[in-house]
Amino acid sequence: MSGAEKGMVDEFREEIDTTVFLFGALLTVGVIAAFFISPSTVESGISTLNDQLLGAFNWALLLIVFLIVVFLLFLIIGPWGSIRLGDESPEYSFLSFFAMLYSAGFAAGVVFWGPTEALFYYDSPSPLFGGVEGGSAEAMTIAIQQTLFHWALPQLAVFTIMGIAIGYFAYNYDNVPLRVSSALTPIIGAENLDGPFAKVVDILAVFATIGGVATSLGFIGSQFVTGLEYQWGISMGNIGILLVVTMMTLLFTTSMVLGVNKGIRRLSNFNMVLFVLLMFATFIVGPTLFLILLGTQAFGGMISDFVSMSLFTGAGPMGAGNPEATSWMNAWTVFYWAWALSWSPFAGLFIARISKGRTVREVAFTGIVATSAATIPWFTFVGGTSVWAHHNGIADFGAVIAGEQGAEVSGFILFETFPMGSIFMLAFMILVTTFFVTSADSSTLAVSMMTTGGKARPSTINRIFWGVVLGMTAAILMILGGTGSANTLQQAAIITGTPFAFVCFLSMLALIKDFGSEYGRVLLQDETVLIGSSSQTEPESPAGPSGPVESDDD
């Protein structure tokens, strides 16, 4: 072994948090090994656990995500927004900061569902809008409204709250590392960040990140494989899926080893340029005036119905509830929240990594407002064009809506109807690949950081190990779900994301507790006693609550 190789191995041994690394690795590698031993057992176990979690915690996910959105909006307009993460100047320009946050945070899902999601709501509107008939002109607006709701504020909120919490406590407290459990510093105590509870949180963060990001990579990988078959007739079986994911794993591992500045930042900037070009090209080629009218009305509907859409449960199958409505909500809204929550440890850690020197208001604004401003036009233009084309018989998405074809084929059906459709499809394939790479390298960097106890620049060996694990998990989920089915991918996201709903909620409470004590309460006076009697309360005199009667005598 050369001196350089020995140095890399020594660096890896010295940096890892043995407990978090071993348990995180054993959990994920154990799932991979179980797949090769008995794929049917893994698939059955995922399905059973998914059903149990949905039945017990669907309401909790809806309520927690809604409260986090409200709190972040308060941070943007309230007095706590001026609090700074650390005391240094920001490392990146605002545009690069925004591009990295958006590309690494959740843009892979935006690309996958952009041409597809509104079609399902057009065919089967949310039961919340009971008077809207599927397939009608009115359903077109409701479909885009529901899509905007799913991809604007709420999903982004859970990433942002974790990013602010991790960054604030890591940069503003002494000896607090940059890791997921640090978000709970005021609750568990800074002296207990190496204790058992913090270790459990960090191990869950590793497992949730692998499951959540592998879900996204599975979606994007299946879209890539489908595009090859749809456009060029290149059919791939399970071996082909493994080859494609291996190729992409090599790409994102290379980008990750280059680091944030040379790899992730540059690729994120390229992604955003191509993303904007494809979005506005669709807007121009598509039904431009209709999309403006549709988007305006759908955006207004999302704002006016935001609270009811956030907390709609169908009242559950128990009592007089509507089981069909609850099933619809579980299949869409709860799935999306769980998927976002499974990303929250990785996305939050990565946001904290790039947010040093920025104010709480700036991070909250970028996380839920600026990113929503990019997402809303994409789903309006691309999703709106798909719905319009299907409604008017210009494109046929019937097989996708019926489940006979996978959702990943929708983009290719749509762009096939455009002038120079091959160019649009090629751009779409490139965007799919680059977002795959950006999401994967930033998430693998985050997992590497988690397993080192908070080191901002983990060793190359650590990064490569988790890159391989992530790629293998994505391939397994794709094979289990099949290239035409997202069912197993969705179930994996719910399983890994549900526990982190409660971690995100506790992170929000930790911020409220610390901001209130350090920078002053907002709703109550600082001396207000919430429970019990005030130690400063004077005992009442025998003369009554007004106190003793003063005497004129000296």
From TrEMBL:
Top-level division of the source organism's lineage: Archaea
Record keyword Membrane present: yes
Region (Disordered): 533-554
Cellular component terms (Gene Ontology): plasma membrane
Transmembrane residue ranges: 20-37, 57-80, 92-114, 148-171, 203-225, 237-260, 272-294, 334-351, 363-381, 418-440, 461-480, 492-512
Subcellular location: Cell membrane
Protein's name according to its UniProt entry: Choline/carnitine/betaine transport
Organism whose genome encodes this protein: Natrinema hispanicum
